[in-house]
Design goal:
Length: 129
């Protein structure tokens, strides 16, 4: 009987101490501070390929078709982003203009951007995911 009581006390003390240790407050770590997302896209970007994915087909790897030569008409196309003025300018020509020739750019969320929003000079907005 005495042995059972000692086992009970030891088990009680262990469980109580584990509970107290398990309930301590986690240390607080500061969240990382990211800079302006415009810094990540500032500069001149040269268009190298345009691929269209078939999102209707339910497969692990979506079939793609390369539309680069068709849409660029064989000419070089680039887009320049100015981070200070928040403007963009497309150089070269596309058969179908999906971006406008120039305008302003913004992000859907300044802290956690998921979309780039291009607004051309006629106030048409292009959303790039």
């Amino acid at each position: 009987m005495k042995t059972n009581f000692i086992k009970f006390v030891i088990a009680f003390v262990l469980l109580t101490s584990l509970t107290i240790v398990g309930c301590t407050k986690d240390p607080e770590y500061p969240l990382p501070v990211f800079g302006d997302p415009a810094e990540g896209i500032a500069g001149v970007w040269k268009l190298s390929t345009i691929k269209q994915s078939d999102l209707v087909i339910k497969a692990a790897v979506k079939p793609q078709i390369d539309l680069t030569d068709f849409l660029t008409k064989g000419t070089a196309v680039s887009i320049a982003f100015d981070k200070m003025a928040k403007t963009y300018q497309v150089t070269g020509s596309l058969r179908v203009n999906y971006l406008g020739s120039n305008g302003t750019f913004a992000f859907n969320d300044a802290k956690n951007p998921t979309k780039l929003l291009l607004t051309d000079i006629s106030n048409k907005v292009y959303s790039l995911d």
